[in-house]
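Quick one: structure tokens for this chain, please?
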Amino acid sequence: MQSVNIIGAGLAGLSTAITLAEQNVSCRLISLQPSERAQSVLAEGGINASLNTMGEEDTTEYHFQDTMKGGVYLADPNAVDALTKGAPQILQWLEGLGVPFHKKNGVIMLRNFGGQKKKRTAYAKSSTGKILMTALIDEARKFESAGLIRRFPHHEFLRLLMNEGICAGVRVRDRYTGQIWDFSGKVLLCSGGMNGIFPHMTTGTTQNSGDVTATVFSQGALLGNLEMLQYHPTTIGISGKRCLVTEAARGEGGRLYIMRDNQKWYFMEEKYPELGNLMPRDVVAREMYFVRRKYGGSVYLDMTGLSKETWEQKLSDLRDEIIQYLAIDPKTEPIPVKEGIHYFMGGIDTDEFHCTNIPNLYASGECTCQYHGANRLGGNSMLGALFGGRKSAQTILQDVQDVSSDFPTESLVRENEPYTEEASPILIESISQILLEGLGIVRNAEQLTQSLKKLKSLSQERSYNLREQNRLKLAEAMLLSALERRESRGAHYREDFPEKDESFRKVTIACRKEEQISITFRNLPERRSSCKSP
């Protein structure tokens, strides 16, 4: 097998690379940033697995049911079945790599996270992503020294190389030297979410620009559930973006309130007595929006009741972060919080094995859409990236389809490449504002139609380079997807269609053919009685 090309070096990309290398298959790990600066490093709260170490009789079936319910049954049930059954093995693998999960008497401790009735979120303080990435980076280095993993940091994805409808490789650019390379072989996209489309409103790195998704969309890849943007309820404003206040703060006892009649009203606890502040993120964000609209003022997160032990052993890094950015000590004073765009449930459409509609092209991690449906549960993102990476590797190893042998393995391109032109910051900001007007926490047809009109007007203002054209078309697909889903489900709440409609329990599919975008719906598969996990 030719060397596999992996675009992205976060948790999904690293887990794929390591799994391939374990089977003596080489790969190129291609990324704009080194792994130490990947989006995955920013993940805080933890990773889910039904280890049942807390005496609550948790099972993988409970994890499956919570994930499906949290995603309002829009996720692929077979993909979720494999994910939840494979989660304990993923945790064992991580523990074997030396990840220092919080333990007591040698047993991994688990915390509560939103939308889940059982404690099943393993953690390392509130810097779990950084610690997991450190372990995987160290593991990958063993295979780098053996030549099985070749790193290409500061290299930018430009486009797929296609051969009669089959993905034959990838074109990339070295951003230090400007050299453009063609690499043949199968391609796995682990390019993360589309945070760069929403500067100032996202908790994620804007280096995850969405350009990879926009480009493969222009080359025929189908996208799914683009309307499903997760607004995390608890973020704080910092320069140029939003900073996440991890859900672990509420998992450990943090409480949301707003001032009503000059008194603190803990609205989530009154409205949802069973789970309270740990309802799924779409519900909490929407309730915050409604109470703020009705009563005015800010919503506060009150963590003053947390114990000294919790602050010192579980959330010390979160406390330091809040003091640094807000000059408020959350141990003694509530902090104002607001919703921020945090995760993209939608993305490149794949099946449960991470295959796209283009042969030899695969996708894993946040750039895909199969695991989380209409709303992601906290603790399932790192699990989805790690499990999905290993699952993708297994699929690639089993897929006999290969590229033409007459295609050069590596070649330096001498021709001009139109994809190297950057998108204008002014255009990026304009697209962001148009999308935020239509794709807010609460939506309606009038807002969406108006946003589409503004986007069309913007697209006709001047000539755009290819990167800009693709961004405009991706934005159009997002708005059209939201307009066509005439119901409320998870993160997609329509004021004009406030109820869930089971006729829309289907994946929204966006297809681009030249300048035309069509939106259709794909039925979800039935759950099989048994699903294998890696």
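The domain at 423-523 is CATH 1.20.58.100 (Methane Monooxygenase Hydroxylase; Chain G, domain 1).
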